[in-house]
Amino acid sequence: APRPVVRTRAVALQAPPTSVAGNAILEIAARYVGTPYRLGGNTPAAFDCSGFTSYVFAQVGISLPRTSSQQRHAGTVISRADAKPGDLVWWPGHIAIYAGDNMIIDAPGPGRGVQFRNFWHNNLTFIRL
Question: Does pLDDT of 121 surpass 80?
């Protein structure tokens, strides 16, 4: 009997936004769409939310602390209106990269790999590094 096809990378829920082109942080982050989630993951084999942001920013020479709560304090808090693609977006227990147009790229949780997606939280903290 034929062997079943096993998918190892999740499909992104949203197509990459136009803000990716020419934005170094987002271009790097987009390379990892579909990378599986694993708590404590901080390499392209698997990421958790803060492992993903740490890894992406390290590629452009920016060192971030390991946890989302530590990353929350790594830069300058800015308003949502001033947020630009490539800034960090934090809410309790999670960190992501702002992709513009109410979208983020992140490692959202178990069973969902790195993806671009719309965000829905109202109580967000935007951080510029």
Answer: no
